[in-house]
Amino acid sequence: MELLTTDDVARMLKVNKRTIYYWVERKQIPHIKINNKLIRFRPVDIQEFIEKNLVNPDGVDETVDEVVDEILSKINS
């Protein structure tokens, strides 16, 4: 299984790396700690995080799956 780094997730979500660390510290985003130092993320957890936090206003045609697929394809390319 490929794990994502903090840089990967920050790029994927288009936020600053410090935001990812803040979310990790507050346990707002699922993560794995390796040797109580390295932080890694499972792609499936990030996908669920996106789905959980998606705000879908009226008139938006994209589904959650389309948004997630687009983001994951950018990561995998």
UniProtKB/TrEMBL annotation:
Gene3D superfamilies: 1.10.1660.10. One of its GO terms (molecular function) is DNA binding. It comes from the Bacteria. InterPro entries: DNA-bd_dom_put_sf (IPR009061), HTH_17 (IPR041657), SinI_DNA-bd (IPR010093). Residues 3-53 form the Helix-turn-helix domain. It holds the Pfam family HTH_17. This is Helix-turn-helix domain-containing protein.
